[in-house]
Amino acid sequence: MSVYCQNCDHLRAEIAQLQAELLTHRWIPVEERLPKPTEETHPQQSELVWLANITENKIEAVKAWYEPLDERWFDQFGERVTGTHWKPIILPEGD
User: Fold this and answer.
1) How far, in Å, CA of 82 to CA of 69, rounded?
2) What are all long-range contacts of 18-24, with beta carbons under 8 Å and residues at least 24 apart?
3) Collapsed DSSP state (helix, strand, coil) of residue 41
4) Does residue 2 sit in helix, strand or coil?
């Protein structure tokens, strides 16, 4: 006997939306992909992102951008840095 849950379709849609939201906040390994250059401001560098060195028991993160021509990362002050993962800086939406 099958029982139809009237609320299940709504719950499945909500779960899919939450899973998509989680993907936007995950740390992306630099081996998987790198941030894309910004076309309107600096075509030679990415926008500012969070760059982190993630180890088994800690995360150290800085704001940085990636320069694809030289394949290097720079922090927000222009110093060269390295990292294992990155993710976009997502600010809360304003009212």
Assistant:
1) 16
2) 24/88, 24/90
3) coil
4) coil
The CA distance from 45 to 36, in Å, is 8
CA distance 2 to 5: 10
Beta partners for residue 52, in sequence order:
61, 85
What type of residue sits at position 21? E
Residue 27: helix, strand or coil by DSSP? Answer: coil
How far apart CA 76 and CA 85 sit, in angstroms, is: 16
Model pLDDT for residues 35-92, shown as the tens digit of each residue: 887 766 555 667 888 999 988 888 899 999 898 888 999 999 999 999 999 998 877 7
Q: What's the confidence (pLDDT) of residue 79?
A: 95
Over 60: is that where the pLDDT of 2 sits? no
| CB distance 86 to 35 below 8 Å | yes
Strand partners, 72: 67
pTM reported for the whole predicted model:
0.70
